[in-house]
Amino acid sequence: MTAPLLAAAAGLVAIDSIFCRRDRGPLLYRERRVSGSREFDLLKLRVLRQDAIAGALRAFGQVRPAERDIANLTWAGRVLKRFYLDELPQLWNVLRGDMSLVGPRPWPPPMVEEQERQGLVYRRLVPAGLTGPAQVRKGVPGIRFADLDLAYVEACRAWSSWRLLRYDLRILLETARLIARGEGLRF
């Protein structure tokens, strides 16, 4: 169902690459992430300039921090990021079983290891998700993402399948509302 939207988003990246020399690069970007007890390659449409990707990998070992600076985004990236369209290829990760629709977002291995050193091992207990409670509550003061993730992991353990399914559907609906408002550039 999302194939036409994915094709349009990929076309936007391709057009940007044709007309803007500094925005040229591959269509997709891959980054190692952790989901449950294993690592996988997360797929995203490339929204960053190649020099920004290289700099972020050198400085941080991942590209996420570079996405926060709008100056690092390609022209197409500014459009796609606003509506989270750069995340559409992750539906392939869901279909492959690398991650689920709802759960804690997948993090790069070094970040997971740092979190584990702090005693938080929940990312290895459940599959990562395309969206989750932390993603739909961005910008709410006083809420720690780790607390929301921990509560979700506990719900997976303790709740009935039907109750968890209703909660997941509510998170998916909240995600759709967030996307429709175009709040993707607000971190």
Q: What descriptive keywords fit this protein?
A:
two-stranded parallel sheet; 8 helices; 187 residues; mainly alpha; 48% helix; two-stranded antiparallel sheet
Short account of what is shown:
The chain contains eight helices and four strands; from the N terminus they run αββααααβαβαα.
Structure commentary:
- The structure is a single chain.
- Helix 1 (3-19) packs antiparallel against helix 4.
- The protein has helices at residues 3-19, 50-60, 64-67, 75-82, 90-96, 109-117, 145-158, 161-180, and strands spanning 28-35, 38-45, 100-102, 129-131.
- Helices cover 48% and strands 12% of the residues.
- It contains 8 helices and 4 strands; from the N terminus they run H-E-E-H-H-H-H-E-H-E-H-H.
- It starts with a helix and ends in a 7-residue tail after the last helix.
- A two-stranded antiparallel ribbon has the order 1-2.
- The longest helix has 20 residues, at 161-180.
- Helix 6 (109-117) links the parallel strand 3 and strand 4.
- The model has no long low-confidence stretch (mean pLDDT 91).
- With 187 residues, it is mainly alpha-helical.
Mean pLDDT: 91
Spatial sequence of strands, sheet with the most strands: 1-2
The coarse silhouette is globular
Q: What gap, in angstroms, lies between the N and C termini?
A: 28 Å
**What structural class do the secondary elements suggest?**
mainly alpha
Largest sheet: 2 strands, antiparallel
The amount of beta strand, in percent, is 5-15%
Number-wise, the strands total 4
Give the number of helices: 8
Helix content: 40-55%
